Amino acid sequence: MREALSIWFFAGVLFFIYGVVITAEGIWELSHPLVHPPVLNSLHAPIWWGGLMFVAGLSYTIRFWPRKLR
Amino acid sequence: MHLLPGLMLALFEGPVTKQLAHLNAVDIAVIAIYFGIVLFIGFYLKGSANTSEEFFMAGREMTAWIAGLSFVSANLGSLELMGWAGSAYQYGILATHWYWIGAIPAMLFLGIIMMPFYYISKVNSVPGYLYLRYGNGARALSAVSFAFMTVLMSGINMYSMALVMKVVLGWNLNFSIWVSSITVALYVALGGLRSAIYNEVLQFILIWLGALLVPILGLIEAGGWTKLKAQILTNVGNTQYVHMWSGLGHFSDNPMGVHWSGIVFGLGLVISFGYWTTDFLVVQRVLSAHNLRAARMAPIIGAGFKMAVPFIVILPGLIALSVLPFHLVGESQAVATGQHSYNEVLPLMLVRYCGPGLLGLGVTALIAGFMSGMAGNVSAFSTVWTYDIYGAFLNKKASDRHYVSMGRWCTFVGVLISVGTAYLVQHAASIMDYVQSLFSFFIAPLFGTVILGMLWKRATKAGGFWGLLAGTATAVGLWAWVHNDPSAVRYVALSPDARALALDMYRALWSWLVCVIVTVVVSYMTPARPVAELEGLVYGASPIPQEHDEHWYQKPIVWAGAIAVLFIILNIIFW
């Protein structure tokens, strides 16, 4: 038996997945530039913003992973 | 890459109009993952919503942080996000008043003064408190008006979101309305308030993650706050777009046509306190807290986050004034000329700064905002209907299981009425203005009734009922007067230069005053209730349970004080 899933676990999982998808998209764009890039595209926001979500999501997923009930 | 959205849209009949942005497969995946998670939460929590206490009050097990985030998130609907961003473009930084003076003092007051009475009386709703304090008359008036207005407002929110999605992304109106509303209906009906609260917390964080890039990148593009202000001055030619108080000396000195007295007394003391302390949509979230300390801390935590919301709502509107190469116009002009309207400013800024993936995240944030607002509306509607209308007047002796079942069905009915309202608004846009005015009719007098009930032992049942009725009638009467004779604005809002928003503030102020005066007069004319009957309901007749915090910095009053100081500092900085 494990404890009930915390809301912070759901948040961690969601942001971890988003972090992976958005960072991957940002890295892909380095070798495949967009035809219509957004303003300030040179700052590569998907890489650092996605990376931030990846790290935050991963830490929350691990921190709030449902533990076994004794 | 573009096949998936095409297939999805094809499910819904109707032409796709010209659009501002295209979502690619990554964006669609981001949105689909979000829908998957919210539905999963609903199914996962289904087993935790078997009794009425679990379904309607989330078992009263929420921590201060969860209740506090949910408290703010339920208010952060699509009108709140996109409408106020549009107002910031239209009126400048003055729109921030609705987030600061129009929210923070009231939220702190709720946490410090009012929450103990709501919490120790163990009521399930605000009409439930009115029943204990004033009897069935005030409860019925408040419950029926709240239930009716809540689902109508939910429909208006729905239509507003669908309209923006249509203009910006080319999404069919039917697609936006039905997919989002069915999802909300499912997760609220399955998991009750707990599911709504869990999703609201998730949605609140998501709104921040999706929308925060716009002000960050916008400030970088504008060259910082000082250059942004200079650019706005150049583009607009009015310094009052970046000052919150200095132009409020006269109605004609600022773009909003308001006066400081209306902002302070009408918005800050009446509308704001009315909404944040008596609107069950938000109060329900705090009532779900697991103890009194959590219930008092929740609005205080919420106030801290509410104070930060202008960064993702108001600032994008101001940045748009500086960097957009074209002008936005009012809704009716936009429809007539094909230009973009004020309400589209937030999606427009998302499209400006966000490429694939991030754009999907930003659109998900907008959808999340809509869904959190709608879930708040329908969960509050189902609670008030079940406890304060159905259970109080139509079927008093049903089993707990029956009431839970009624709550689940009511969620679907609430969503269906909201959808109906959305379609009604689509064919008669003026209904939107009427319903928004109607909503304001009830809020201000209700605050007068509740606050007198909590702080004044002498208030009687008859006083409460007639005060509420007279206050509401005053609001309706003043609205009808100005509607039929626009020159009456000089009497209602004290100046012929006052505009619509100023008028709302003064109408609320007068209706609240009438409610208070009538309640006091009628109370003195009728016999007082014995003090013993008021225990747990009124200040001075109720022992407030003592909280034992280990450290001084854990006390709610300390946190409230810190938020209040920050609130004052921010107002001085942006004076």
Fold blueprint:
The complex is a heterodimer of chains A (70) and B (575).
Chain A: H1 7-31, H2 45-63
Helix pairs in contact in A: 1-2
Chain B: H1 3-10, H2 25-44, H3 52-57, H4 64-73, H5 78-91, H6 104-120, H7 126-134, H8 136-169, H9 173-211, H10 213-222, H11 225-236, H12 260-278, H13 280-287, H14 292-308, H15 310-323, H16 331-337, H17 345-353, H18 358-394, H19 400-427, H20 430-455, H21 461-484, H22 489-492, H23 500-525, H24 556-573
Helix pairs in contact in B: 2-9, 2-18, 4-9, 4-13, 4-14, 5-15, 5-18, 6-12, 6-14, 6-24, 7-8, 7-20, 8-9, 8-18, 8-19, 8-20, 9-18, 9-19, 10-15, 11-15, 12-20, 12-23, 13-18, 14-24, 17-18, 18-19, 20-21, 20-23, 21-23
Keywords (chain B): Membrane, Transmembrane, Transmembrane helix
Organism (chain B): Silvibacterium bohemicum
Subcellular location (chain B): Membrane
For the biggest sheet of chain B, the summary is: none
Largest interface: A-B, 27 and 31 residues
Low-confidence parts of chain B: 1-17
Distance between the termini of chain A: 8 Å
Mean pLDDT of chain A: 91
Main sheet properties of chain A: none
Mean pLDDT of chain B: 87
Radius of gyration of chain A: 16 Å
SSE string of chain B: HHHHHHHHHHHHHHHHHHHHHHHH
Give the CA-CA distance, first to last residue of chain B: 49 Å
Q: What is the assigned CATH homologous superfamily of chain B?
A: Sodium/glucose cotransporter
Q: What does it look like?
A:
The complex is a heterodimer of chains A (70) and B (575). Chain A has 70 residues and is mostly helical. Chain A has one domain. Chain A contains 2 helices and no strands. Chain B has a single domain, classed as Sodium/glucose cotransporter, CATH 1.20.1730.10. Chain B contains 24 helices and no strands. In chain B, α5 crosses α18 and α17 runs antiparallel to α18. Chain B starts with a helix and ends with a helix. The N terminus of chain B is likely disordered. Chains A and B meet through α1 and α2 of A and α2, α9, α10, α17 and α18 of B.
